C-alpha cells in the first residue's frame, strides 16, 4: 500500500484548511458588518439618551430608536457657531458624518498647538455633530459630543444641556481605557449624578467654570454650582475630565454656538 503521509500531502491538507478557514472568517466578517454597524449606532444613540436623562431602564432597541427620533441631528461649524449643510462636508445625511474621522482629515480639521489643546486631542474637527431636542418650538435639550485625554486614554462622551444651554442635564463617557476602580469611576452612576443641575457658565457667558475638586466640594463654596467632586485616587483622570469639558464648552468648542442658541440666533 502506498504511503499516504507524504510531506506534499501534509502541505496540501494544511493549505486547504487555511483556505477554508480564511473563507469562513472573511465571510463571517463581511456578513456581520451591517449588524456591527447597527449595534454601534444603537450604542451611540443609547449614550446620547442616557446623557439626556431619557434612557429608560430595560429599553429595547425599538424604544431607543423611537426616543432618538425626537432629536434633530445637526452639523455645526465650531468657528462660526452656525449650522452647516451636511453636503458641505460630503454627506447627504448629518447622521452619517463622523466628527472623529474628520479629525484625522487635514481638510476637515485644525491642528491645535499645545497652548490651545488642554484636552490633549491634537486635532479638532471643524464641524461637530450635535443633537437637538425641541418641543413646540422650545429648545428642551442640546446634546454635545466631548472628548479628551485622561491618564491612559482619550475619553469620548456626551454632555446634555437643558433648554437654557447652560444647565447640565447629564454627562457620560461611552469609551475610555482608564483604570477600573480609579479613573474608570467616571462611569459610576453616583458620580455622574452629581453633574445633574450643575451649570457650565457663570457671569461671563462664554467662559466655562467647571472644576473637579479634590477631597470633595465644600457645601459652602459660592461657586458650588460649577463644582463636582474629583474621583478619589484618580486626580489625573479628574483633571482630564475638567480640561476636556472646559475646552469643549469654551471658545474653541461650543461656546460661540451656545451663546447664539441662548440669544435665539441659531
Ligand atoms: C496601576 C495604576 C493605575 C492607575 N490608574 C489611574 C487612573 O486611571 N486615573 C488616575 O487618575 N490615576 C490612576 N492611578 C493613580 C495615579 O498614578 C495618581 O497617583 C493619581 O491620579 C493621584 O490621585 P490622588 O491624588 O487622588 O491620589 C493609577 C495608579 C496605578 C499604580
Question: Which helices and strands occur, and which strands form pairs?
Answer:
Layout: H1 7-51, H2 61-68, E1 72-77, E2 82-84, H3 99-102, E3 109-111, E4 123-125, E5 127-135, E6 138-149, E7 154-162, E8 168-175, H4 189-193, E9 211-213, E10 227-229, H5 235-249, H6 255-262
Parallel strand pairs: 9-10
Antiparallel strand pairs: 1-2, 1-5, 3-4, 5-6, 6-7, 7-8
The protein binds flavin mononucleotide (FMN).
Structural features, described:
The chain has two domains: about 5-70; about 70-260, no CATH class. It contains six helices and ten strands. About 35% of the residues are buried. Helix content is about 30%, strand content about 20%. The chain is of the alpha+beta class. Helix 1 crosses helix 2 (about 60-70). The strands form three sheets. A six-stranded antiparallel beta sheet has the order 2-1-5-6-7-8. The termini are far apart. A hairpin with a 4-residue loop joins strand 6 and strand 7. The structure holds flavin mononucleotide (FMN). Flavin mononucleotide binds near residues 151, 233 and 237.
The distinct ligands, each listed once, are:
flavin mononucleotide
* Residue fraction in strands: 15-25%
Q: Give the ordered list of helices and strands.
A: HHEEHEEEEEEHEEHH
Rg from alpha-carbon coordinates: 23 Å
- Average pLDDT score: 94
Q: Mind summarizing the main beta sheet?
A: 6 strands, antiparallel
Compute the separation of the termini in Å: 87 Å
| Shape designation | globular
Secondary structure class reads: alpha+beta
Helicity range of the residues? Answer: 25-40%
What is the total number of structural domains? 2
| Contiguous runs where pLDDT drops below 50 for at least 5 residues | none
Q: What is the multimeric organization of the chains shown?
A: single chain
- Let me know the number of strands: 10
* Number of distinct helices: 6
How do the strands of the widest beta sheet line up side by side? Answer: 2-1-5-6-7-8
